[in-house]
Automatic annotation (TrEMBL):
<dbReference type="GO" id="GO:0004659">
    <property type="term" value="F:prenyltransferase activity"/>
</dbReference>
<feature type="transmembrane region" description="Helical">
    <location>
        <begin position="280"/>
        <end position="305"/>
    </location>
</feature>
<keyword id="KW-0812">Transmembrane</keyword>
<feature type="transmembrane region" description="Helical">
    <location>
        <begin position="100"/>
        <end position="119"/>
    </location>
</feature>
<feature type="transmembrane region" description="Helical">
    <location>
        <begin position="125"/>
        <end position="142"/>
    </location>
</feature>
<dbReference type="InterPro" id="IPR044878">
    <property type="entry name" value="UbiA_sf"/>
</dbReference>
<comment type="pathway">
    <text>Quinol/quinone metabolism; menaquinone biosynthesis.</text>
</comment>
<feature type="transmembrane region" description="Helical">
    <location>
        <begin position="20"/>
        <end position="37"/>
    </location>
</feature>
<feature type="transmembrane region" description="Helical">
    <location>
        <begin position="180"/>
        <end position="200"/>
    </location>
</feature>
<feature type="transmembrane region" description="Helical">
    <location>
        <begin position="234"/>
        <end position="260"/>
    </location>
</feature>
<feature type="transmembrane region" description="Helical">
    <location>
        <begin position="154"/>
        <end position="174"/>
    </location>
</feature>
<dbReference type="GO" id="GO:0042371">
    <property type="term" value="P:vitamin K biosynthetic process"/>
</dbReference>
<dbReference type="GO" id="GO:0016020">
    <property type="term" value="C:membrane"/>
</dbReference>
<dbReference type="GO" id="GO:0009234">
    <property type="term" value="P:menaquinone biosynthetic process"/>
</dbReference>
<keyword id="KW-0474">Menaquinone biosynthesis</keyword>
<keyword id="KW-0472">Membrane</keyword>
<feature type="transmembrane region" description="Helical">
    <location>
        <begin position="43"/>
        <end position="60"/>
    </location>
</feature>
């Protein structure tokens, strides 16, 4: 029993399992969008979609760690004073052999692909388009030759918006309905932008080490002051799309209760200066993650309630 607990604990830490809600929430939104708009919901397909998307997300976390370790970014972050590293630490800290880490990583991809195959048999070949694009983005985010996360041209932010917003929401909706709609695209924008904000803000924690390792994130390229302005712009853009979804009937009007989730995060911005030590960004990172999950949960509840009302 203890061995099983240790294996699970190791896997949970290595894969950074605690952040999996940022992928599962968009899947819920896409499926519940189908439930509200078309009265369609297939529980088994939904569960398979959750498993596949979750496995793909954990693969993304681990392949990022694997290539950041190989590229030297994680080691540099570990050795740079006052920089806060956001990787699992299993490779940079020598806690797990690279071969073992890689084997777990590719096994997660295998599980995601298996789920994609099953879903395609029931919902059609476009499932592979959604899943394939997500897999390619996850791999080439830090892997050569593309390395979105190292280019500093906004490519990594677009990649995150697609991977944690557009693709999982539209993909989950397609699995349920066999359709592609503008409604699911617009529904993906609030949660996609908020998750992009989470990933963008985490660069503040170790941008000095990223600069040394040649990882040119927008925080490195722009500097703290300009990057903070962009961070705030992403925040407000996400909630503008939330309002747009409610006004156009994509979400019920009472989903606007999710606007209250902006308050704790906005207060954190107010405590930041133009230049801050890395530790000062930890509350920003935590508040960003909470805003993304809480806003997503309110949207989920609104879709679920409205779907039952319309039955």
């Amino acid at each position: 029993m203890n061995r099983r607990v240790n294996i699970w604990t190791t896997f949970r830490k290595a894969s950074r399992f605690q952040v999996i809600p940022v992928m599962l929430v968009p899947v819920f939104l896409g499926a519940l969008g189908a439930f509200m708009w078309k009265g369609v919901f297939h529980p088994v397909l939904f569960v398979i979609t959750l498993i596949g998307a979750g496995a793909a997300h954990l693969f993304s976390n681990m392949i990022n760690d694997l290539w950041d370790y190989r590229n030297g970014a994680d080691v540099t972050a570990k050795e740079t004073p006052e920089v806060i590293s956001t990787n699992s630490g299993f490779l940079s800290g020598g806690l797990m052999p690279e071969r073992t880490f890689a084997a777990i990583t590719w096994s997660l991809l295998g599980l995601a692909v298996l789920c994609g195959v099953v879903l395609s048999l029931f919902s059609g070949w476009p499932v592979f388009v959604f899943g394939g694009l997500g897999g390619l983005i996850a791999y080439f985010y830090v892997a050569p030759p593309i390395r979105f996360g190292y280019r500093g041209q906004g490519l990594s932010e677009v990649a995150i918006l697609l991977s944690f917003g557009v693709l999982p929401v539209m993909g989950a909706y397609y699995v349920q309905t066999g359709d592609i709609s503008y409604q699911s695209l617009l529904l993906s924008m609030p949660i996609g932008l908020l998750t992009t904000l989470v990933l963008f803000n985490h660069h503040f924690l170790h941008w000095q080490a990223d600069k040394q390792a040649g990882k040119n994130t927008l925080v490195v390229v722009w500097g703290e002051r300009r990057a903070l302005h962009f961070s705030k712009a992403l925040l407000f853009l996400a909630y503008i799309f939330l309002i747009l979804c409610a006004v156009t009937g994509i979400l019920p009007l009472y989903s606007l209760l999710a606007l209250f989730t902006i308050i704790p995060l906005y207060r954190v911005y107010g405590r930041l200066k133009e230049h801050n030590p890395s530790a000062a960004y930890l509350p920003l990172m935590g508040a960003s993650l909470q805003a993304s999950i809480r806003c997503g949960l309110v949207m989920i509840a609104a879709l679920l309630v409205q779907g039952f009302i319309q039955m």
